[in-house]
Design a protein that fits this description.
With 381 residues, the chain is an alpha/beta fold. It has 3 domains: 3-48, no CATH class; 57-277, Alpha-Beta Complex (Spore Coat Polysaccharide Biosynthesis Protein SpsA, Chain A); 287-380, no CATH class. The chain is 49% helix and 16% strand. Strands 1, 2, 3, 4, 5, 6, 8, 10 and 11 form a 9-stranded mixed beta sheet that branches. The chain has a two-stranded antiparallel ribbon with strand order 7-9. Helix 3 (22-34) runs antiparallel to helix 8 (150-162) and helix 13 packs parallel to helix 16. It starts with a helix and ends with a helix.
Length: 381
């Protein structure tokens, strides 16, 4: 929004009095960030023309497990955000890192609310715990390896308020080198769940997908957006029944977006605003952790399929996922035995064993839910 346009809007007293403040407060926030116009001037306009602000609070919820280096950068970026127009509260759920660093971060960031979970209970469980302690009108779920900025946060609030049809919103992301990411996608199905069928599907639907996600569009509507950055109103969050605890890590964001669609909501991503995403805050600490978390990608695929598909279709999706991985990665796994001292091969070997162990557990206990999920006991009894 141009400064002169917005000042002109404010100078029209009749329009300002008749118009809901919600249509202007986000614009004021963005104007304050983008321009040299100081807060005193903005306050003068609001007072003179009888615009009375209704304060909007955004609760930022971050789940952490020993990702302290990235978390430090993330919290530092949030601490620099000017919150004169809005209120911003930051809640960090520590999934029982138990490494002695929580106290240090509590002292370093005294305005952040740190809450220790009972264990490493997964992303979904941590998010739900964060919501239980949140007071915001809007909930912003963020990974600990995100570098936030005021323009993106206030811009996302403004986008939702201007378009009531949007229930869940994300924004563009790029890594620290400036490379753009694609934190969105299509819901898993028989032709979109795994690599080769998905490649053929994209070829067959190329023009349709290109039109749906064309780069020129500032606002796109994918099936799902990444849980690395997600904003939803607290009221709409309650309608979804929250994050699903069947997932320990990965695909919980796809499930959440599915639930948003189930209540008749729209999932959107704005390209007008962007945040930096430095991948691997807690999932790439060492080869063992990398193998563990990558194995969860596989098991979470099966969890999603078991929750939303049945019969022959579900069987084919499970079979294609399992066979594709076990056959496709067998050679590298065998190669990792004599070459275990090569870090990448070592990680592949560990990954293969972890996935194989999960498949054996799924057959034995007749559930795809990860043993690390807080709901595992419920399904395995």
């Amino acid at each position: 929004m141009q400064i002169t346009h917005f000042v002109g809007l404010l100078q029209n007293k009749k329009d300002c009095v008749k118009t809901d403040w919600a249509k202007h407060r986000s614009a004021i926030g963005i104007l304050y960030v983008k321009s040299d116009l100081n807060l005193a001037a903005l306050s003068y306009f609001c007072f003179k023309y009888t615009i009375r602000p209704i304060v909007t609070t955004v609760s930022v919820i971050i789940v952490n497990y020993r990702g302290w280096r990235h978390l430090n950068t993330c919290l530092d970026s949030l601490s620099k955000i000017n919150a004169d127009i809005y209120q911003l509260e930051t809640i960090v759920i520590d999934n029982f890192s138990n490494d002695g660093k929580l106290d240090e971060f509590q002292r370093r960031f005294p305005t952040v609310r740190f809450i220790q979970n009972t264990g490493n209970n997964g992303f979904s469980n941590g998010c739900n715990l964060g919501v239980a302690h949140a007071n915001g009108d809007y909930l912003l779920f963020m990974n600990s390896d995100i570098i936030a900025n005021a323009e993106a946060i206030w811009g996302m609030v403004d986008t939702i308020e201007r378009d009531p049809g949007i229930t869940l919103l994300s924004c563009s992301q790029q890594n620290s080198s400036g490379r753009k990411e694609h934190p969105y996608g299509l819901f898993p199905d028989l032709l979109t769940l795994n690599g080769l069928p998905r490649a053929f599907y994209k070829m067959a639907k190329g023009s349709e997908l290109k039109d749906r996600f064309q780069a020129e569009k500032e606002l796109i509507y994918p099936d799902w957006v990444s849980g690395s950055v997600m904003m939803i109103s607290a009221d709409n969050f309650r309608k979804t029944n929250g994050w699903c605890d069947d997932y320990w890590l990965y695909y919980e964001d796809v499930e959440f977006c599915w639930n948003v669609r189930e209540i008749g909501g729209e999932v959107a991503l704005t390209r007008q605003f962007s945040m930096i995403h430095n991948h691997g805050g807690a999932t790439r600490i060492n080869p063992r952790t990398t193998a563990l978390t990558k194995a969860e990608v596989r098991i979470s695929k099966h969890v999603f399929v078991s929750r939303h598909f049945s019969g022959l279709k579900a069987f084919l999706m499970h079979f294609m996922t399992a066979a594709g991985f076990l056959i496709g990665n067998l050679f590298v796994a065998l190669l990792s035995l004599p070459l275990f001292f090569v870090p990448k091969l070592n990680a592949y070997g560990r990954l293969y064993l972890n996935v194989l162990s999960n498949y054996i557990s799924a057959i034995r206990y007749r559930t795809w839910v990860s043993p690390r999920s807080v709901n595992y006991q419920k399904y395995s009894e």
